[in-house]
Design brief:
By secondary structure, this protein is an alpha+beta fold. The protein has five domains: 71 residues, Orthogonal Bundle (Arc Repressor Mutant, subunit A), CATH 1.10.10.10; 40 residues, no CATH class; 93 residues, SH3 type barrels (Roll), CATH 2.30.30; 86 residues, 2-Layer Sandwich (Alpha-Beta Plaits), CATH 3.30.70; 166 residues, Aminopeptidase. It is built from 17 helices and 20 strands. The strands form four sheets. A seven-stranded mixed sheet has the order 14-15-16-17-18-20-19. Strands 4, 5, 6, 7, 8 and 9 form a six-stranded antiparallel sheet that branches. Strands 11-12-10-13 form a four-stranded antiparallel sheet, with helices on one face. It is elongated and about 120 Å long.
Amino acid sequence: MKCVPKGSNQKFKLYRLAQIMQEQTDDEHYITMPEIMDELAKYNITADRKSLYNDLRDLSILGIDVEGEPIGNRYHYHVVNRAFELPELKLLVDAIQSSKFITEKKTNALIKKLETLVSKYDAQKLQRQVYVSGRIKTMNESIYYTVDAIHNAISENKKIKFQYYQWNVKKEMELRHNGAWYHISPWGLSWYNENYYLVGYDSEAGKIKHYRVDKMLHIRLSAESREGKEYFKKLDMADYAKKSFGMFRGNERTVRLLVKNNLAGVIIDRFGKDVRMIPADEQHFTVNVDIHVSKQFFGWVFSLGEGIKIIGPGEVEEQMKEEARRLLEQYENKGDARDFNEYYELRQVCPDDAEEATGIEAICFPPSEACTLPIMKERIQYAARSFLVAMDRETGKMVGFINALCTDEESLRDELFTDISLHNPNGKNVMICSVAVLPQYQGRGIAGEMVRELLLEQRKLGKKCAILTCVPGKVKMYKKFGFMDRGESQSTWGGEKWHEMWCTLNS
C-alpha cells in the first residue's frame, strides 16, 4: 500500500478545507474530490479520499453543510444553507452603500467582510454600486467608536464628555463653544434623516438635548453617574424623533392641521397609521398631531404648499404667520431695508465727504466712468441740494451716495459728467449722475431709498422730470424705482452702451 507523505501544514487541514468549500462553491458552482485535493496541495496539505469524506462530514460541526451530487462518474460537492442568502447580502450591501453616515472607507471595508460570507462567484455580485441623488457620505471615521462608547456609557450608567464641532465657511471643522467640553448623561440613540443622534440629559441646563453623533469628537466616559432618569421614564425615543422636525426642539404642542385628501400618505408617513384623520369636507380632512413647534416644522408645512394649513391653536397660527411675514420681507426688502432708518441715515452732502464719496465711486465704477476728486468737490460745492449720502449708523462710515445736476435739457449728455457749469439750480429737470453703493452693502435697499428720497425732494422743488442713464442690466432695477425705459441713449460715456431712463415728477 502506497503511503502518501504528509504535508507541513496538516494541522490546518480542516480550516483550509472549510475555506476552499466556502470560497469556491455555491448552488451553481461545484468542486470534485480531485480538485479539492489539488487546492489543499497549494497550502502544502496532503489528504486521501477516505479522510476527506470524513472531513467534509465534520464540517457540519462548524455550521458548514456540504452536499455531494453524482454527475457522470464523479461526485460534485458544494456548500448549502449558508448563514445569509445572496439576496439578503445584496440588501445589506445596498443599505451600506446608500447610508449617509457610513464613510467611503468604512463602506468598502464592510462590504469586503460581507463578501467573505459567500463564494468568490457570488462575491462579484455584491460589488454593486447604489447611487442615491444628492447623497454625501460623512467624513467622520470615528463615528463607529463613538456609537460604541455611548452604548458602553449607557450600560455602565456613566456620563460622557465630548467636544462638538461645526463646519465654517472655509470648510473647516470648528469646535463649538470655543472647544469647551460637553458633560451629558446619555440615555439613548435616535436615527433620524440618515443620521444618528445622541439623546441625553444636560444637568447644567436641566433639560433633554440631542446631538449629531458624527459631530461629536474625543468622547470619554466620565466617573460621574448619569442623571435625568426621571425625564426619560416617560420618554418614547421613537415618539421624540417623530415630534422633533429635523431633530430641532421646541415647545411641545398639539397642532391641528387641515390637509388635502391627496396628502394622506404624507401624514401617515410622518406620524404613523395610528393618527386620526377626520373628514372636514369632500377634499380635506383634519388631524391633531403632537409636535415640537420650531421653524423646521413651519418649513415642513411650507414645503407642502396649499395642501396643508395650521388651524390651531391660535398662537401656533400666529407664529406661522410671523414666519411667513419674515420670509416675505426677507425676499422683498432684502433684509435691512425694512428698517432702513434703524441702520442707516440719509443726509445732504458736506465738503468733508468728497474723498470718501470719490473712493466709493472708484470701487463701483470703472476708471473710464468714475468721477474724479476735483469733479466730486465741484458737485458738492455747486449742487449739494441734489446730493445725498447714506451713512452706516453703527460705524459712522459712508456706504453710498446719489448725486444729480439740474438743467432745462431733456437728455443726459456726456458733458454733464465733467462740466459743472452746465448745472442750473433752477433747471426744470434733474439729471442723476451717480448712484453708488459699496458692494458689501448692496442688496439691502439702500439704492432704492436714496433714489426715493432724492425724487421726493426734487418733486417738492417743482422739478418736472428725473433722467438717468444706466447699463442694460440695471434697467429692470430702475423700473422698480418708477423710471421708464426710453431705449438706447445717445451717451457714449466710458465707452459703454446706455439706456436712458425717465421718471415724471410733476406734470
